[in-house]
Amino acid sequence: MLKQRIITAIILISLIGTGLFWMPPTGLAALFGGLVLIAAWEWAAMAGLSSVIARLGYAAVIGLLILASAHYSQILTAAPKFELIRDILGVGCLWWAVALLWVRGFPASAVIWRAGVMRMSMGALTLVPAWIAIVYLRNHPYGIELIFLVIGIVAAADIGAYFSGKAWGKSKLAVEVSPRKSWAGFWGGLISSVSLVITLWWLFDGGRHSLVAVVAIAVVTALASVLGDLLESMLKRQQGIKDSGRILPGHGGMMDRLDSMTAAAPVFALCFLLAGW
């Protein structure tokens, strides 16, 4: 199992590195779009769709929504419509605010969203803004650095949560959704993410950006990453499955790797856009 996890992790890191360093922004958009379509295939199962045709159809709908958002926002052109990009990211962030209420209210909240059409809509609100966020960030003059920063914030939150939760995790964060998650892990992950961002700001920013604003963005991004993880856990628990899929040996499905990022990326991108950076 460990060997499989290591091999899969190396392949994923190689894909990310290739997309960021050797592909133009349009290439990365296509690559991430492919990953999102795989995630959509898995989301279809979490939404209760069982047949291959139905799951492929759902993935196709997500693909069409991505193409439509790219066309109308002109995000892959030299003159993107930032107002529309902002609105798409804003809708995505508003959705995560609703998701927070549903996660906190689980299992009672399932009466609101357990219908298949609701869960399919949740997938669209999760996956399309995530794609827009990554493409928007990549098109920024410091796009590669920004994407690595988001990945770093998410990874720091995950690593910090693991070690602090293992050491002090007696008080549970959301026992009905994810029994292993604890408040100690939550605070440890948040502190790790903020510490990483402060260190990077001190080393590389040179005072160009307000430390308060930078820390605020790091905090909401880290919080969003936790919510993304919890939302997927909630859906899997409702559906009675352990992993979103089996495409990544030793890691589960694509959504099991992207869950935190689907929430963190839109929140980070919207904050960055609104800050005018």
Automatic annotation (TrEMBL):
Q: State the Gene Ontology BP annotations.
A: CDP-diacylglycerol biosynthetic process
Residues making up the signal peptide according to the UniProt record: none
Enzymatic class: transferase
Please provide the record's keywords in A-Z order: Cell membrane, Lipid biosynthesis, Lipid metabolism, Membrane, Nucleotidyltransferase, Phospholipid biosynthesis, Phospholipid metabolism, Transferase, Transmembrane, Transmembrane helix
Q: Where, subcellularly, is it found?
A: Cell membrane
- As recorded in UniProt, its EC number(s) are 2.7.7.41
Which coarse location class describes where this protein primarily resides? membrane
A single GO molecular function, which one? phosphatidate cytidylyltransferase activity
Record field: transmembrane: 7-23, 29-49, 56-72, 84-103, 115-136, 142-163, 184-204, 210-231
Annotated protein name in UniProt: Phosphatidate cytidylyltransferase
What's a GO cellular component annotated to this UniProt protein?
Answer: plasma membrane
Source organism per entry reads marine gamma proteobacterium HTCC2143
Q: Which domain of life is it from?
A: Bacteria
Listed under catalytic activity are:
a 1,2-diacyl-sn-glycero-3-phosphate + CTP + H(+) = a CDP-1,2-diacyl-sn-glycerol + diphosphate
